[in-house]
Design brief:
alpha+beta; globular; Pnp Oxidase, Chain A
Length: 136
């Protein structure tokens, strides 16, 4: 089963504000975390806390899953599996295309600034989808 970008998957990738990123700890436990993300048409970019545990997890095992919230009644399920890697040359989050367009209101609501976001969430991760499953 490969990754087929369906209308349902693309709707979540473009419209959702949060996705659950699940990494695997070095001892084999799943570790889901809600994260902000941007879809660029071929991969998902997520910015991590500079010392986030997910960085250690991905260094040990690059397999991840992304789970989107279900719709009312438990339908509209989208789960994407893929591989994650750190992007060492990525710009800071405030300069990453589309990120502040999507999340500036949330950053402001939290009483933070774009500079705070850059200083604390400075590690970019790129998730390349390899497969997905959905329930309408």
């Amino acid at each position: 089963m490969g990754f087929d970008l369906t209308e349902q998957i693309e709707r979540h990738l473009i419209g959702d504000q949060i996705v659950w990123l699940t990494t695997v700890t070095p001892t084999g436990w799943p570790a889901p975390r809600p994260v902000w993300f941007v879809w660029d048409g071929s991969a998902i970019t997520i910015y991590s806390l500079n010392d986030g545990a997910k960085l250690r997890h991905i260094a040990a095992n690059d397999k991840v899953s992304l789970n989107f919230d279900a719709g009312p009644g438990g339908g509209d399920i989208v789960v994407i599996s893929g591989r994650a890697k750190v992007l060492p040359d990525a710009p800071p989050p405030s300069r990453f295309p589309g990120l502040l367009d999507k999340y500036a209101p949330a950053v402001e609501y939290m009483g933070r600034s774009a500079q705070w976001f850059d200083q604390n969430y400075g590690v970019a991760l790129r998730v390349t989808p390899e497969r997905a499953w959905t329930i309408p």
